C-alpha cells in the first residue's frame, strides 16, 4: 500500500513538473501549434484532477488500514500530512487557467505589428503594335523616355511595328497606428525588359535613377478635433470620377502621383475635399529671370451622396497654374512661341452625375461636363467638354449582357493663329480608364467627337468579355488630332495649317478579355484596331493600327 502511495505521489509530481515545463515552453512556440498546445494543457488539467481523486482514495484506504493495524499514531499522522500536502499541490495545478493562443501571440508580435499591413504587386505586360501607335515612352525606361511632343506618330507607316514587355513591381506598408494616425508607403520599380542594354547593372540604362522610386508616401491625420476631417500630406494618387480630368494614369508603367496636401471631410451625406499640389518645381529658371517656372495644381470638390436618389453628384473645380513662359502647353502645342509666350493658367468648373435609375437598377448612367476659362500663354482660354454614358444590363439572362452607348465631345480651336484658345485642356487624366476614348490610346478629350457602342458579357464568375466600337470626328479640322498624352499626333502644326476638307478622323474596334485565374492572380488581354479616316488620309497618311497585349497581375 505504501508503494502505491509513493507511485501516486511521484506520478503527481511528474505531472506538475510537466505542466510547468509545457507552460514555459509554450511562450516560445510558433503560432501554428498554439491550438494543439491549448488542447494538451486542458487534457493535463483533467489528468491532475483524476490524480487528486486517487490520492483521496489512498488516504481513505490508509485510514482504514491504520485503524486495524498495530502501527503507531505517529506513522498515521505522518502519512496524513503527506497526503494532505500533495492534495493541495494537485489542486493548485488542476485549478490553474489553461494557456490560450491569444495570450501567447501577444508576446510574439507587438501591438504595433498587428496594425501594419504589408502587400505587394507584380504586373507584367507584353505588347505588340504596328502603324500609328505610341511607344510607351511615358515609363521613362526606353530611349527617348522623356515623352512630350516628340512622342507623336509623325513619319510612322504600315511597316512601323514593335514589341516590348513592361514590368512594374510595387511593395507597400499600410500602418494604422491609432485612431488619429495612418501612414502609407509604396515603393515602385518600373522597367522595360532589356532597356538597360545588359543583364549586369545599369551599364547602358536609360533614366536609371527613375526606375525605382517612392510611388506613394503620405500620412493621414484622422478625426481631427473629433470631426469627420482627414488631412493627407505627401506623395499620393488622386482619382476623381472616371479619371477624365484627374486620375492616377494607372495603365502607364509608372503612373501619376501628386506631391500634395489634401483636406477631406466625409459623412454619410456629403464629401468635401480641397487639394494643393506642386506638379513641377523648377525654381527661378525662366528665360528673363523675372519669376519662377513652377507648375501648381489646386482643386476642390463637393459631392452629394443622397441628394439625388440612387446617384452621386460631384461638383468640381481644378486649376492648372504653369508659370513657365518658355515650355508650357501653349508653346508645346504650337499656339505660341517661346519668345512671346506668357504663363498658363486654366480654371475648370465641372460636375459629374453617376448612378442608376431608381427602382430600375438595370439602367446605369453617367453625365459629366466641364467649362474652362483663363490664359493660355498669350491667348485667352475658353473651352468646354461633355461626356454622357448609359447602359442596360439584362440581369436575368445568361452571361448578364450589358449594352451601352456613350458620346464624348471636347471643344477645339477653329483658328490657332488668333488670340483665342478654344481647345479643351484635358488636365491630368487617365484616358485609358474604361477605354474612355478607345483602349489603343490614340485620342484625348480635346477637339473631338466620339460615338461609342459596346457590349459586355460575364460567361463565368471569373471571365468577362467586352467589345467596343468608336467612331471619331474632329470638332475643328484646323486644330488637329491630339493623342492621349495631350500632344498633336503630327508633333508640330503645319505652317499652312491642316487640310479641312473632312473632319472624319477614324474608327476603332476593341476586344478586351479579363480572367481571374486565382484569388491573387489576374489575366488581362486585348486586341484593338484603329482605321484611318479621311482627315488622316489627307493630313498624315492612310495607315491602320493594330495593337495586342497580354498582362498578368499578381497581388499579395
UniProtKB/TrEMBL annotation:
Keyword Coiled coil: yes
Span of the signal peptide: 1-22
Residue stretches making up the Alginate export domain: 155-544
Protein name per Swiss-Prot or TrEMBL: Alginate export domain-containing protein
Coiled-coil annotated residue ranges, if any: 34-96
InterPro entries (alphabetical): Alginate_export_dom (IPR025388), Alginate_Permeability_Chnl (IPR053728)
One Pfam family here: Alginate_exp
Superkingdom of origin organism: Bacteria
Organism, scientific name: Candidatus Brocadia fulgida
Keywords recorded for this protein, A-Z: Coiled coil, Signal
Gene3D superfamilies in alphabetical order: 2.40.160.100
Organism phylogeny: Bacteria, Pseudomonadati, Planctomycetota, Candidatus Brocadiia, Candidatus Brocadiales
Amino acid at each position: 500500500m505504501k508503494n502505491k502511495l509513493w507511485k501516486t505521489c511521484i506520478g503527481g509530481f511528474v505531472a506538475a513538473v510537466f505542466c510547468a515545463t509545457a507552460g514555459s515552453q509554450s511562450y516560445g512556440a510558433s503560432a501554428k501549434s498554439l491550438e494543439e498546445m491549448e488542447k494538451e494543457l486542458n487534457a493535463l488539467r483533467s489528468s491532475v484532477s483524476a490524480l487528486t481523486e486517487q490520492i483521496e482514495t489512498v488516504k481513505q484506504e490508509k485510514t482504514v488500514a491504520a485503524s486495524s493495524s498495530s502501527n503507531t499514531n505517529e506513522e498515521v499522522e505522518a502519512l496524513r500530512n503527506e497526503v494532505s500536502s500533495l492534495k493541495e499541490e494537485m489542486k493548485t495545478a488542476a485549478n490553474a487557467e489553461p494557456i490560450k493562443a491569444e495570450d501567447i501571440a501577444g508576446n510574439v508580435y507587438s501591438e504595433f505589428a498587428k496594425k501594419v499591413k504589408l502587400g505587394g504587386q507584380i504586373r507584367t505586360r507584353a505588347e505588340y503594335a504596328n502603324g500609328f501607335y505610341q511607344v510607351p515612352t511615358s515609363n521613362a525606361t526606353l530611349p527617348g523616355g522623356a515623352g512630350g511632343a516628340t512622342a507623336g506618330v509623325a513619319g510612322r507607316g504600315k511597316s512601323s511595328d514593335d514589341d516590348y514587355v513592361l514590368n512594374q513591381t510595387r511593395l507597400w506598408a499600410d500602418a494604422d497606428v491609432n485612431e488619429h494616425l495612418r501612414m502609407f508607403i509604396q515603393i515602385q520599380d518600373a522597367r522595360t525588359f532589356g532597356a538597360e542594354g545588359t543583364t549586369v547593372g545599369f551599364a547602358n540604362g536609360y533614366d536609371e535613377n527613375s526606375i525605382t522610386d517612392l510611388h506613394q508616401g503620405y500620412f493621414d491625420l484622422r478625426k481631427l478635433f473629433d470631426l469627420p476631417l482627414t488631412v493627407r500630406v505627401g506623395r499620393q494618387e488622386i482619382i476623381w470620377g472616371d479619371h477624365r480630368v484627374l486620375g492616377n494614369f494607372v495603365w502607364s508603367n509608372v503612373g501619376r502621383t501628386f506631391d500634395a496636401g489634401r483636406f477631406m471631410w466625409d459623412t454619410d451625406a456629403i464629401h468635401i475635399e480641397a487639394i494643393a499640389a506642386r506638379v513641377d518645381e523648377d525654381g527661378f529658371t525662366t528665360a528673363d529671370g523675372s519669376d519662377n517656372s513652377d507648375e501648381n495644381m489646386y482643386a476642390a470638390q463637393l459631392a452629394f451622396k443622397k441628394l439625388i436618389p440612387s446617384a452621386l453628384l460631384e461638383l468640381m473645380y481644378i486649376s492648372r497654374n504653369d508659370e513657365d513662359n518658355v515650355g508650357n502647353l501653349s508653346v508645346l502645342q504650337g499656339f505660341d512661341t517661346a519668345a512671346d509666350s506668357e504663363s498658363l493658367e486654366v480654371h475648370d468648373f465641372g460636375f459629374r452625375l453617376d448612378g442608376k435609375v431608381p427602382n430600375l437598377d438595370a439602367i446605369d448612367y453617367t453625365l459629366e461636363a466641364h467649362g474652362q476659362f483663363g490664359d493660355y500663354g498669350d491667348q485667352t482660354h475658353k473651352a468646354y467638354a461633355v461626356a454622357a454614358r448609359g447602359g442596360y444590363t439584362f440581369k436575368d439572362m445568361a452571361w448578364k449582357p450589358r449594352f451601352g452607348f456613350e458620346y464624348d465631345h471636347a471643344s477645339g480651336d477653329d483658328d490657332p493663329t488668333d488670340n483665342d484658345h478654344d481647345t479643351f485642356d484635358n488636365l491630368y487624366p487617365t484616358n485609358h480608364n474604361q477605354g474612355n476614348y478607345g483602349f489603343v490610346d490614340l485620342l484625348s478629350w480635346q477637339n473631338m467627337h466620339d460615338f461609342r457602342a459596346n457590349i459586355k458579357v460575364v460567361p463565368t464568375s471569373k471571365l468577362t468579355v467586352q467589345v467596343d466600337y468608336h467612331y471619331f470626328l474632329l470638332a475643328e479640322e484646323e486644330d488637329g488630332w491630339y493623342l492621349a498624352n495631350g500632344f498633336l499626333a503630327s508633333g508640330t502644326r503645319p505652317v499652312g495649317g491642316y487640310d479641312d476638307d473632312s473632319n472624319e478622323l477614324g474608327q476603332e474596334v476593341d476586344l478586351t478579355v479579363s480572367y481571374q485565374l486565382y484569388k491573387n492572380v489576374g489575366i488581362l488581354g486585348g486586341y484593338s484596331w484603329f482605321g484611318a479616316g479621311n482627315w488622316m488620309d489627307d493630313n498624315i497618311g492612310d495607315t491602320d493600327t493594330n495593337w495586342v497585349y497580354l498582362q498578368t497581375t499578381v497581388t499579395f
